[in-house]
Structures are given as C-alpha cells and as structure tokens.
Amino acid sequence: MRKIYIFLIIAMVACVGCEFQLKPNDANDGDDKICLHRYDRIQSLFLTTGDYSALQQMNLEYPQETRTLIEDVLKLGKVNDRDINNKFLNFYQDTVLQSLINEVEQQYANVEDLDKELQKSFDKLLKMLPVLTVPNIYTQIGALDQSIVVGNNSIGISLDKYLGKDYPLYLKYYPESQRKQMTRNMIVPDCLVFYILSSYPIPEEGKSQLTTDLHIGKIQWIVNRIMGKRVFSTRFTALVAKYMKHHPGMAMDKLLSVERLP
What is the pTM of this model? Predict the structure, then answer.
C-alpha cells in the first residue's frame, strides 16, 4: 500500500541544472543526481488550453504525480473515473486558480537556483542519514491547500504556495506569520523537513504536543545545519542545539531516536 504524506506549512508554524525534464522515469537511473521535474508546465498547458496531448503526457509520463494530485491533493475522485479529465479541467477554470497558474509560470520560469540548492542540500542530507534514498522531486500547481506532498520516494512541491509573502491573494487569506513561510527560499528547507519526517515520523507511543514539537525541532535543527543557517528558530531548535553541543559526535539517526532531551 502506498503512503502519501501531505503537509501544510501552517502545521509547521504551529509546531514550531535539470530545469525541464519531460520523462521522470528516465532520470536518476543508476545515479544519485537530484533533478527537479517540471510537471507543473505540462499541467499548466492542459489546464489553460485543454491541450489533449498535454493530458496524455501527464498520464503516460507522470502517472504517479497525476494520480497523487487528483486523488490525494485535490480529492476529485479516482484517475480512472469516467469523467475525471473533465472534472480536473473544470476545477481549474476558477479565476483564482487561473491567476495562480499564470503567476507560477512567471515567477518560476527559471528554477536553476532551486535545482542547484536541492542537489547540494540532498547530498548533505544523504550523508547525514544514509538510510534515505534520492527522491524524485517535481513541481505542481495545487489549489492553495497543500505545500509539500511526500510519498513513494517522491516529493511534490506546490509552487502556488510559494509566491511570496506579499502576493496579493495571500494577503487576503493568510496571516503574516504564515506568509513569511510562503516564499521561494523556503522550498528547499520544507522539502528537507518533510522528507525526513516521512521516514522518521513522530513517535506514536507516548505521543503528546511536547513529543511532537521536540521531534519537529530535531528535524528543523538538522535542516538548519544542512542549509548552513538558522532557517527555523524556535525554543525546540534551541534546545536541540544546546543538547548537541554536549553530544557533538552523535549521529543524526540517533538524535532522531532520542525520546527526551535533558
């Protein structure tokens, strides 16, 4: 059974050179290079023009991404439902969603910077936590619900949730504390956090808000270390930093398994 983890940035706030690749299944075979697949471009083509060839490309070359988007993110039905293609197309005809598609196309016309930062950051992550494997990372356009989708060794980035803290539509619906996280420079840290969290979930046994906050704090501290700066700054990341000063040689997987920090 597949496991899909859909993450909202607001949950995190509360707790605390392959720019255009058409065939994701051909990439990363036999190598460990991160490549950001532009699923959003083909998605955008279909949703703005109704181009049937784009729909075919989505279904044939990005079957897992399309299924996850339709079934798990948008919850429109099953990909094999008789009228699902029309339902999918009609859903995005909303003027707000069309404006999001247009804004994503403009802001993310070039993602070379994200490609490079993802490669560099995941190289460091896999050295810290070698049990993890190189994920397939792709971009999509959601409906302002989910930010990051993780499942089946894939990471889906909803670019519509990273249009900048001053994007007019965000000003209407999101508080400033949340909008600060909805920026381009948060994409890579969020990918790292949620990918680690999918493999090292919050312990169910003895689960409490403190347990949750501490576990997220550990992951965020690891991501801060990977990024080389304090992307996340909470009392729990500070607690982890203090703990690690006294345990400098501790492996990251060991840290994630520690139940309590003194």
Answer: 0.89
Q: Give 196-209 pLDDT, tens digit per residue.
A: 999 999 988 667 88
Report how far residue 233's alpha carbon sits from residue 224's, in angstroms, rounded to the nearest whole number: 9
Residue 4 forms beta bridges with which residues?
151
Buried-state track 191-223, b at ≥16 Cβ within 10 A, e below 16: bbbbbbbbebeeeeeeeeeebbbbbbbbbbbbb
Q: Using alpha carbons, select from 262, 257, 215, 259 the residue that is nearest to residue 237.
A: 215
Work out the angle at residue 112's Cα, subtended by the Cα atoms of residues 173 and 232, and round it to the nearest 5 degrees. 50
Residue 52, CB half-sphere, CA atoms under 13 Å: how many? 0
Alpha carbons 198 and 187: distance in angstroms, whole number: 16
Q: What pLDDT, in 10s, does the model give residues 116-127?
A: 999 999 999 999
Beta bridge partners of 37: 138
Provide the residue count of the chain.
262
Structure tokens belonging to residue 242:
């203090």
DSSP, res 69: I
In angstroms, the CA 140 to CA 66 distance is 9
The CA–CA distances, whole Å, from 121 to 80, 102, 188, 193, 240 equal 37, 29, 8, 11, 20
What would the DSSP string read from start to end of 228-244?
TS-S---HHHHHHHHHH
Tokens at 200, concatenated:
């090292």
The beta-carbon contacts of 171-175 under 8 Å, at least 24 apart in sequence, are 173/144
